[in-house]
Amino acid sequence: MPTFVIETPPVVTLPVVGTEALFPVRRVYCIGRNYAAHAIEMGHDPDREAPFFFQKNPDNLDTSGAFPYPPHTSDVHHEAELAVMLRSGGTNIPVSTALDHVFGYALALDMTRRDLQGDMKKAGRPWEIGKAFERSAPVGPVHPASTVGHLDTGAISLTVNGALRQEGDLNQLIWKVPEMIAYLSEYFELAAGDVILSGTPSGVGPVVRGDTMEVSIEGLGRMTVAVV
């Protein structure tokens, strides 16, 4: 048996609805500006240009129901998203068979240090400092596609302290889930355990300590996350 020079990091796992088995996470891909109204509110053209992606780290995913307000920022924004979990992968996956690689779906948040992200944009630098910080992706349990089907339509919303902030429908995604998988597979070798966050509708905005966020997607229920 091999030995390691340091203690091996734990495998990041997510609970799966209806079973005690866990979904192991390999990578986390996030698509940017995938709803037209959100692209507009961020100051961009909503036309169907080629998609772009950034990454979070597997251990940014957090199922605790608490979001610790991060350091070095005064402008943290919520972004409600659909998470797509892959059971298999490959390269150059056709759109027509892309959904065959999906294990299931979950509610998720792409929490963003918007001020730091804005600084990086102005400097032409990567966004990780604004996107990939600790516990920046609250996520709910995984719902197997064998149970909930493949989600191509359905209301998505987010409230803060009971007030509606974000509202949209999965059918408004500019790049649909099969297209995202196919496009990503042209540039990366996708594999079982990969997670894709599919973008957020308009209405993103700041939260502060003491706020309570609630994300809802039709077919996946609700997820409550407290800002602490």
UniProtKB/TrEMBL annotation:
Keywords: Hydrolase
Span of domain Fumarylacetoacetase-like C-terminal: 28-228
UniProt-listed InterPro entries: Fumarylacetoacetase-like_C
Molecular function GO labels: acetylpyruvate hydrolase activity
Domain of life of the source: Bacteria
Key word Hydrolase present: yes
Protein name (Swiss-Prot/TrEMBL): Fumarylacetoacetate hydrolase family protein
Organism: Roseobacter insulae
